[in-house]
Structures are given as C-alpha cells and as structure tokens.
TrEMBL record, chain B:
The lineage of its organism: Eukaryota, Metazoa, Chordata, Craniata, Vertebrata. Pfam families: MRP-S22. This is Mitochondrial ribosomal protein S22. GO terms for cellular component: mitochondrial small ribosomal subunit. One of its GO terms (molecular function) is structural constituent of ribosome. InterPro entries: Ribosomal_mS22 (IPR019374). Transmembrane segments: none annotated. It comes from the Eukaryota.
C-alpha cells in the first residue's frame, strides 16, 4: 500500500511538471524535479486526511488516467494540445543540446537516461517527456526520426536520444516497415533469363525405376539380411531409454 | 529459348554494321517472347500481346525516373547541345524500357508429392525432420535437389514452400525475408490500399514470392480487384505492373472501367489497342464477331463495343465533343 501511494505520488509529480503550461519556459529547472524524492510517508498520510485531500486525490486520478490513455493509444499525444504547446510544429528532438566537454561530441550517446526510478540530468528528447511512447503504430513520431530525403534513420548523435531508446526506435521502425505503415525503398527484381517450366526432376515427378515394383525394397539386401539376435539385444540394452517400447 | 537467342546473336555478328544500341534492345526485350501458335488462345508471352501491353503502359520518363529515397550525392550539372540532349533522352528511354519489363504471369505451380524411399528401419530414430539441400553454386534454383527425411523414415522431396525457405537460407536474395511480411495478410492489405500504395505492394510481392506461387497470385489478384473497384488505374500507368493489370482484366472480361478511364484522359489509341487485344483473346464473343463481320478499325471498334454497355457510349460521346471543340477553337 505504501509503495503504491509512493508510485502514484511520483507519477503525479511527473504529470504535474509536464502539464503545467505556465512553467514551460523554466523547463531546465523542471527536469531536475522528477529526481526529487517524494515527501515522507507521514506527511502524505496527514495530507490524505487533511482539507486538501479531495483535490489531491482528483489530481492523482486524472494523472493516472492520462498516463493510461497514452499507454493504450500512444499516437493520440501527437495530436493533443499539450504536444503543440510544447513542441509546436518542430520535431521532438529539435533544440535539444547534449552536455559534453569540447567541440566534438562523443560518438555514442549515453546508455540510458532512466535507471530504476532515477532520471539523469538533461535527459534525452524521448525520456524527458513521459507521454512520448515509442510504439510501432505511432507513425508520426517514428517519421520524425527518419530523414525525409534519404529514408535512413538519423544517428543518435544528431537527435540526442540515449542508446536504449535508439534501440527501441530501430525495432519499432523495422516493425512498422514490416506491417506496411512506413514506406521504404524496394529493390528492383530482374526476371529475364529464368526458366519457369518446372520440368526438372528436382521439382517434378521422378518416375520409379522400371525394374522395381512398388512393394519390392530399393536395395536387394534390405530383405536378405537377418540380424544377429545377441547383437540386437546388446544394442537394445544400451539404448533402452530411447526405445519406444 | 536459349537457341533462339544464339541464332539472333550470330545473325547480328554476320551483318556487322548493326549499331550496338539495336543489339542490346534485341537481347533484353525478346528474352521470353514466343511466336503464336495457329488457332490457339493467345498467351501473355506472345509477341503481339506484349507489343499491345507495352504500348498501353506508356513511357512517362518523369514517373519512371522520379527521385527515390537513397544515399544522397551532390548533384552534377552538364552543359549539352540539343543533339546531345536528344541522345541523352534516347539513352534514358532505353533504360526506362528495361525497367518497365513486365514480370511473368504464370499458372499456379502444382504441389510436389514425391516419395523417393521409405526406410522403416529409421522409424522413431529421431524426433525432428532432416533437410538435405544441394548447395552447388552454379545450378539454377529450380534444378536444385532438396529432400526431407521424416522421423518415420520417409525420404521425400521438399514442398514448394520448404524449397523457397531453404533456398533463401542458403542463397539469400536481397529484400526477401524468411517469413513473408505481415503486410500480405488480408486486413493489412486493405489499410495499404486505402493509402494508395498499390505499386509498393506489388513491388514487394515481386521481391518476396516466386511468380508461380499461390501467395503471389493471390496478392496480385487482390490488388487488381481493388484498383478496378475504385478506378485508380492511373497509379500503375508507366510502371511494370500495368501490363499484368490489363491482362487480368481482359481475361476476366471486365475492361469497361479501364476503357472509360482511357477515354477520359484522351488516350484514344490506347483504348483502341486494348479493345483489339480483347477481341484477340476472346474471338468468340458477340462484339468480336460483329467487329470481324464489319471489318472495323479505329474508333469503329469502340463503337461496336458500345452496344454492350452504356458507359463507353457516354464516354466516347464526351471525347468526341471535346475533340470537336478543340478543333473548332
């Protein structure tokens, strides 16, 4: 029960941050807030029985509902007002800047932004917004990470996503291409110079040899050999576990 | 077919003064054309049929060479005289003809049910099947021996599906997957058709399936049916699939929609060629016999057809009115 309440409060704190439009300009400050530990248990319990209990509970329920709604249909978020307010018409990763020493960034982005419950400072464009879910049916989001000119997936050093999210993106894009939701370039097949008559023995009927009747065995010695009983018993004893009866 | 080509090459070498251009077009486009047998039903590979179909397909260079999504290079600019430009356009037309080569239309392949041996001595020895594939490099895939030993000791030839899978395992073809795309299931095909991506579906089908497999024929038929139902014939014009579409409609006797579409786009010659192809394939139908009786050519062929359906009549009238207006103004 305690863990459940803690989790709800964590989700609520994250939802409050992402849904608060008036704090849009202070996004950099807000990204630190999810790492803040929730208030201690006793304070929560006293709040529940306090005067602000009703509005806290409603807000928690709403937050849980929105998180669930985007979980079921992740593509709804990209049409919602919150998304337009936050990103406008530019891509999710536009304007994100990695923090690194020197002019040349490391050729691999960080391994992951979220470890357990902690989120790092300056998370990547996908991890910083919990409503963005990488799903193979979320075509609008996936297309933001594919170049419109070459059709290739952008490198993580360009978009800034962490390696774990990049891997999930690659899998989602491959699945979307497989399902036909994302178009891709198909190689040209040349059909000249191929014989489709199917007359070769490999794919046609091999007639049985004329000298053998269907009931006769293929090799003559199949019928003539009779096994030595002692040797058969020996072999049967060795392979007793594998025999059928 | 191979003998036919050798004779052709000998002929051209003897003459000596044929330009290389003609030689290459001979070699490529006449690969599997047959001469028609007297009195028999015309096949897809007949020279006359192929000629008509390639004329109907058209050759829109802008559509054939539209920019595709690939690794980008910086553009190159060339300064050309008019003659050089014409030569470049001719080279482009040859290349486009090669790209518009029609994929084969074959009847469905018969299943392979051939047992080579039954060895009762091996019954129950193992729980899995063993597949033995001949991986010699130089033999065509249709002459490759692939046999399966069942757990009950039967040695049989592999079925067509198994053959395709194992040939793909040992000799992978680019773009082909071991399990076909989920796209080819009925429900997903409908989604893709609603996005007008019929050409992509057909190209993917060509890459994935063999031309005589059941899946290939099923996907092609589904695509052609959807195109015919919605009248979206223009999507396939100037692609390699238009010939197949026209052939399917002619064999199913449902050319009316296509003729109306052609007349709407002012392609009278194409409509006439299509109708003449229809009479070639179905010489015993009423309109074919009427046309033969009247010795009709040109627009008269179409007028003979109009007795069967009113739509073509209206479309033909509209076309003639437009032509009259155009010539008057």
């Amino acid at each position: 029960m305690a863990a459940y309440v803690l989790n709800i409060s964590r989700i609520f704190s994250r939802e409050l941050i992402s849904a608060s439009f008036q704090f849009y300009r202070y996004r950099s400050c807000l990204q630190r807030l999810p790492a803040v530990k929730p208030p201690p248990l006793s304070a929560l319990f006293t709040h529940q029985f306090g005067s602000s209990a009703a509005c806290w509970q409603e807000a928690e329920v709403q937050a849980a509902q929105t998180a669930d709604r985007y979980k079921q249909r992740p593509w709804d978020y990209l049409d919602s007002e919150e998304y337009v307010e936050r990103y406008g018409s530019s891509a999710v990763w536009a304007g994100y800047r990695r923090n690194h020493k020197g002019g040349i960034p490391p050729q691999k982005t960080r391994k992951t932004c979220i470890r357990g419950d902690k989120i790092c400072g300056n998370p990547c464009p996908i991890c910083r917004d919990p409503n963005i879910i990488v799903h193979h049916q979320n075509v609008k989001l996936l297309q933001q990470f594919i170049s419109p000119h070459t059709g290739m997936v952008y490198d993580p050093t360009l978009t800034g996503v962490c390696m774990k999210q990049q891997k999930k993106l690659n899998e989602a894009i491959n699945k979307a291409r497989d399902d036909g939701l994302l178009p891709f370039q198909i190689p040209h097949v040349d059909f000249s110079g191929e014989d489709y008559s199917n007359t070769h023995d490999a794919v046609g009927l091999t007639s049985p040899p004329p000298l053998l009747s269907p009931s006769e065995p293929w090799y003559k010695w199949y019928g003539e050999i009779s096994p030595d009983d002692k040797k058969v018993d020996q072999v049967k004893k060795i392979y007793k576990a594998y025999l059928k009866h | 077919i191979i003998l036919h080509n050798y004779i052709l090459t000998l002929f051209t070498f003897q003459l000596g003064h044929f330009p290389l251009k003609y030689f290459t077009s001979f070699f490529v486009s006449h690969m599997y054309l047959h001469s028609p047998r007297a009195g028999a039903k015309p096949r897809f590979t007949d020279a006359a049929v192929q000629d008509v179909l390639s004329r109907i397909t058209g050759l829109d260079l802008q559509k054939v060479f539209r920019p595709i999504k690939q690794e980008l290079k910086p553009p190159t600019y060339k300064l050309m005289t008019d003659e050089q430009l014409e030569q470049a356009i001719q080279v482009a037309t040859e290349e486009a003809k090669k790209q518009l080569q029609m994929p084969p239309v074959l009847p469905e392949r018969k299943p392979i049910n051939d047992v080579l041996a039954v060895d009762k001595i091996l019954d129950g020895m193992d729980t899995a099947k063993y597949v033995f594939t001949d991986i010699t490099y130089n033999i065509p895939h249709r002459e490759r021996f692939i046999v399966v030993r069942e757990p009950d000791g039967t040695l049989r030839k592999a079925t067509w599906e198994e053959r395709d899978r194992f040939v793909q395992v040992y000799f992978p073809k680019q773009g082909r997957k071991l399990t076909p795309h989920v796209l080819f299931k009925e429900e997903n095909l409908k989604t893709v058709f609603s996005q007008d991506r019929h050409e992509d579906v057909l190209n993917l089908c060509l890459v994935q399936f063999e031309p005589d497999s059941a899946d290939y024929i099923r996907v092609h038929e589904a695509t052609y049916e959807d195109l015919e139902k919605n009248g979206k014939y223009n999507l396939l014009r100037s692609t390699r699939h238009f010939g197949g579409l026209a052939w399917y409609l002619v064999n199913a006797r449902r050319v009316d929609g296509l003729i109306v579409d052609m007349l709407r786009r002012d392609m009278l010659q194409d409509a006439i060629s299509l109708v003449s192809l229809f009479y070639m394939v179905h010489p015993h139908s009423e309109s074919a016999q009427e046309a033969a009786g009247q010795q009709a050519t040109g627009t008269d062929l179409l007028k003979v057809r109009t007795t069967q359906s009113g739509y073509i009549d209206l479309a033909l009238q509209a076309y003639e009115e437009k032509a009259a207006e155009g010539s008057a103004s």
